[in-house]
UniProtKB/TrEMBL annotation:
<keyword id="KW-0808">Transferase</keyword>
<dbReference type="InterPro" id="IPR029063">
    <property type="entry name" value="SAM-dependent_MTases_sf"/>
</dbReference>
<dbReference type="Pfam" id="PF13649">
    <property type="entry name" value="Methyltransf_25"/>
</dbReference>
<dbReference type="GO" id="GO:0032259">
    <property type="term" value="P:methylation"/>
</dbReference>
<feature type="domain" description="Methyltransferase">
    <location>
        <begin position="78"/>
        <end position="168"/>
    </location>
</feature>
<dbReference type="InterPro" id="IPR041698">
    <property type="entry name" value="Methyltransf_25"/>
</dbReference>
<dbReference type="GO" id="GO:0008168">
    <property type="term" value="F:methyltransferase activity"/>
</dbReference>
<protein>
    <submittedName>
        <fullName>Class I SAM-dependent methyltransferase</fullName>
    </submittedName>
</protein>
<keyword id="KW-0489">Methyltransferase</keyword>
Length: 229
């Protein structure tokens, strides 16, 4: 047993998880804990505690309702986890690069989808390969911003936006909160003013915005927003 077995889906302990994340925040290493999540699964992607094991239904619905009819269309999945959303984009005809800072996550993806066309790559959102700059028609971001501390959240939005090609779309899925509430929560949900910085700071155009409660008990409020460059 290692020090992070409490992160396995079968043994998950929320308080220990939050203490671990906070300890990395305090060391100003806010992305270096992700690999522990996937290492705790011991090679079994079904044991990753936050994995839904299916693509986002909101992503799939958007892809069905907004077909992008162009040759060689490209998509990028940020913090791809165990790969569900990346595989869905591939099945809709995109050339997909899906990256995660966690080598263990990428290993799980490659083992889970041995015949996939997706390029699963270990990469850092804050230092991605220069050839990715402004090169994707669709960028999918799910729950990355909310697990970062404040200054890194702003940096993340800028970096995510920089991946978009002209007329590209970024789809943003996250937990939500009312203004000035849950300020110390880990993960910290996004307020409306915060997600609106894709408009007010990054100068993107809002294409659609949905606030909804998921089906968990108790339910958890979420946003699903689409912005265009």
């Amino acid at each position: 047993m290692n020090d992070f077995d409490f992160l396995n889906k079968d043994t998950f302990e929320a308080d220990k998880y939050k203490d671990m994340v906070k300890s990395y925040y305090e060391k100003d290493k806010p992305t270096q804990w992700f690999d522990h999540i996937y290492e705790s699964a011991k090679g079994d992607y079904t044991k990753v505690f936050w994995a839904d094991l299916e693509p986002s239904p909101y992503l799939v619905s958007w892809l069905k309702e907004n077909p992008i009819n162009k040759a060689n269309k490209r998509a990028c999945v940020i913090g791809c986890g165990v790969g569900d959303d990346a595989q869905a984009l591939s099945e809709f005809g995109f050339e997909v690069i899906a990256f995660d800072i966690s080598p263990k996550a990428i290993e799980l993806c490659k083992n889970r989808y041995p015949d996939t066309k997706v390029q699963f790559i270990v990469a850092d959102l804050f230092d991605y390969p220069k050839e990715w700059f402004e090169s994707f028609d669709v960028v999918y971001e799910c729950n990355t911003i909310q697990v970062l501390p404040d200054e890194y959240r702003k940096k993340a939005r800028t970096s995510m936006t920089s991946l978009l090609s002209k007329d590209g779309y970024i789809l943003v899925s996250c937990r939500s909160r009312d203004e000035h509430e849950k300020e110390d929560e880990i993960p910290k949900p996004l307020s409306k003013s915060e997600i609106d910085e894709f408009i007010t700071v990054q100068n993107l155009k809002e294409q659609s915005f949905l606030a909804y409660d998921d089906e968990q008990v108790p339910s958890v409020p979420h946003f699903f927003a689409v912005y265009k460059k």
